[in-house]
Amino acid sequence: MSGFLQGLKSVDFYRKLKRDLQQELTEASVSGAALSIIAAVIMIGLVAAELTAYLTVQSESRVVLDHFESSSDDTLQVNFNFTFPHLKCDYASVDATNFMGTHDAGLAARVSKIRLDKNGNLVGRHDDNKKELRHTTDEVHDGPETSIALTTDNFEASHHKYAIMIVNFYAPWCHWCQRLAPVWEKSAATIAQKFPGDERIILAKVDCTHQSSEALCIKYRIDAFPTILVFRKDDKGDSQHESYHGERSVPAITQWAEHFMSQLNNEVPKSRTVDANKDGVVDSHNGVGCMVSGLLHVQRAPGMLKVQAVSDSHEFNWETMDVSHTVNHLSFGPFLSETAWMVLPPHIAASVGSLDDRSFTSDQHVPTTHEHYVKVVRHEVTPPSSWKVAQITSYGYVVHSNNIQKAGEVPTVRINYDILPIIVQFHEKKQAFYHFVTNLCAIVGGVFTVAGIIASLMDKSINLMRKKQELGKLG
């Protein structure tokens, strides 16, 4: 056994000086002590830095080609919320097309509209008419014109003369205005017969193309013909004027006008939202702007989301149509949870809603189309396993916006999107433990070796100086 131990000692890499010889064979110095302290401080600093790097979770990214595992993956959800201060909900239409020109490319859609007043405050929910608006086509009015013609000069005087003034803003070239004209005159005559001598209500009309009344139509932002507004004698500067969107027939218009007389007589509650015939369809309501929001499921192909004024019973003046808007929110893919927002890296979270809270304004009386070009990229973020959070999938995008001002151009808001077939993957990158241990050994051994080399050079320099001093060569 003793022989084995002696053989084992022969391979000792770290032979030590005998204790009784240490004092004779080694010598301590002040410079060596100072260098040892410096080396120790450096070792401690480097070890602390290496430990911090080991404990820090870093991310690594890579780009892979996207592919669809099933046909259900061939669609993507688009979430949007836009505010239009000057586009009425009655006309605001949302349409989706793809690169093949297919309309209604939104395979499933859920769109809601909320009417806004001139200050941008919410007025009420808007429900589109589910049935086609009826127009009387065979009405003839042979008698004198009963509705009064208003201009800029006599409008205010008439406004404050009558308790209720219902005004038809029209353009002679408008097809729908031409069809409404005899209905409007006969409705005015019917109201005058039902309330003879009663000057509390009057039906009037304004020709928006005539020089004497152009300023009126600009003031009240009349860009759809015909537009029928209600003016009350007690209106203030910030009053909202409800507009008529009911059936264009003499019975419907007269019944609607009689409802205002009932309000004056306190027979029905005063309200700016009127369902005169109580059929569940609102005949008139107020609101000059619209908040359009919803979601669409579209094909994963280049396409376009388009918002513009559309109506099957109005003609539009595109010169004054204003589609200025604020993008409250635009994103792609499912809505992210609160946890997902906290886990996403800041630069990815910012790209998820790159257009959010940005406003775009049209020049007055210049038809302006707003185009937004969007490049959509899918991101997959895999949090550290210790967080116990599932992989997060988000869709970020970069956007370039541009205004188009061209005579004859229909003012539109277009979101041109291109869903790129790539995935940017982010995952945890943590240093292996054996790398950490190896680096620690390298730090300790390296600093110790370098300090030893420096100590050796210092000793040799000091000895050389001493010898020169003994020989008197230092001067």
TrEMBL record:
The chain crosses the membrane at residues 433-458. One of its GO terms (cellular component) is COPII-coated ER to Golgi transport vesicle. The keyword Transmembrane helix applies. Pfam families: COPIIcoated_ERV, ERGIC_N, Thioredoxin. Its main location: membrane. Residues 103-262 form the Thioredoxin domain. PROSITE patterns: THIOREDOXIN_2. Keywords: Membrane, Transmembrane, Transmembrane helix. It is found in: Membrane. PANTHER family: ENDOPLASMIC RETICULUM-GOLGI INTERMEDIATE COMPARTMENT PROTEIN, PROTEIN DISULFIDE-ISOMERASE 5-3. This is Thioredoxin domain-containing protein. It comes from Guillardia theta (strain CCMP2712) (Cryptophyte). The lineage of its organism: Eukaryota, Cryptophyceae, Pyrenomonadales, Geminigeraceae, Guillardia.
